[in-house]
Amino acid sequence: MATELFAPQRLDALHHLRSDKVRELTDHVARLAREGTPVNIGRVAFTTSLNLVSRTIFSIDLTSLGDHGRSKEFHEVITGMMEGLGTPNVSDFFPVLAPADLQGMRWRLARLFARLHAVFDAEVDQRLRGRDAGQPRKNDYLDVLLDLAASEDRKDLLDRETLRSHLTVNTTYLCLQYPR
Length: 180
Known about the structure:
By secondary structure, the chain is mainly alpha-helical. Helix content is 68%, strand content 0%.
């Protein structure tokens, strides 16, 4: 992540992307202001940050400023994960009770992670199909990870589950850096 996402040359190369997303955000807010429609600042900031992350990783926008349904879904998943991971659990104090999952934390978090992983799996599968069909590389973070997964010396280290975990950690971390 440090060498591919935060390297100075990568950040410089993605400057236009950040500028485009800020321009989209200001245009959207200006349009809503002209219409007299209230702006949910948290939602548009979250959507913009999510799209910055998804463009960097997948070369696509996972949602749009006008798509309140998909943006709301991602917002619910990310905030649900934050709340679930930050809420004290009875098994934190009494580890012997952990298998019982008395508060249903493990169950709720598993459902949230499954929703996020379904999105990631769809993007990975689409990219793999595109590669098989001879589509050009996008040279984004997913291409770097898929190249690593395909290399002989790393094939066993980067399976689908590890790829999902890696994308989950990086996406969640990057989304949490921005206001909700």
